[in-house]
Amino acid sequence: MEPMDNIELAKQLKCPSGDDGVRVGNRMYASNSNMIYKTIDRLNIKAGMHILELGFGNGRHLPYLFSKEKSLSYEGIELSDVMLSEAAEFNKELIKESKVKLSLGNDTGRMDFEDKSFDGFFSINTIYFWEEPNKYFQDIYRILRSEGQLTLSYIQKDFALKQAFATEEVFHFHKTEWLIRLLTNIGFYNIEQWQYMENTTNKLGQAVVRPFVILKATKL
């Protein structure tokens, strides 16, 4: 992959496109796999749950999700048609078995699902692209059933701001304390957070020690 300038890379990280998008998607999965698996481990998965993910990337984590519980029903929304194609090909057997449904979405904060449709929602490394997290949180609250859980994972703001590709034209970083306040005001409760340090590579392929947070909240 030819070197990209920071703004081009930032746009690819938000919505991978073209041949470069396939390679960026593979790099994101390699960089984020530990965070992804740690997040899935925190989902409190139970038999028969209906789960929604926003931003599934190339979808290579879905076999791990289904290793936790085979009776899950999963739906995923993605901005990138390239990632949708990659994930659909990789998970074609799960799709054929009607366990997985993948679709394109938008970045408005509104999701095209009926009220109280899901038992759980999760999203990994996407909140930086939400200009107004409150809109997303309100809609997630709407589509969750009572006692449904929202789970978010993201890199801590102080670390993220040091990354050259984290341009303000594309990225929006938020403090955990502020996100918790938004969630509480909407009506979520039992808000928990876990903080981790991991050895990984950043999106430029450089070795880093990266702090990240998993934040989980429950709908009343």
TrEMBL record:
| Domain Methyltransferase type, residue spans | 52-150
Associated pathway: Lipid metabolism; Phospholipid metabolism
**Xref: Gene3D superfamilies:** Vaccinia Virus protein VP39
Annotated keywords = Methyltransferase, Transferase
Know the name of this protein?
Answer: Methyltransferase type 11 domain-containing protein
Please report the organism this UniProt entry assigns to the protein.
Myroides odoratimimus CCUG 10230
Q: What is the lineage of its organism?
A: Bacteria, Pseudomonadati, Bacteroidota, Flavobacteriia, Flavobacteriales
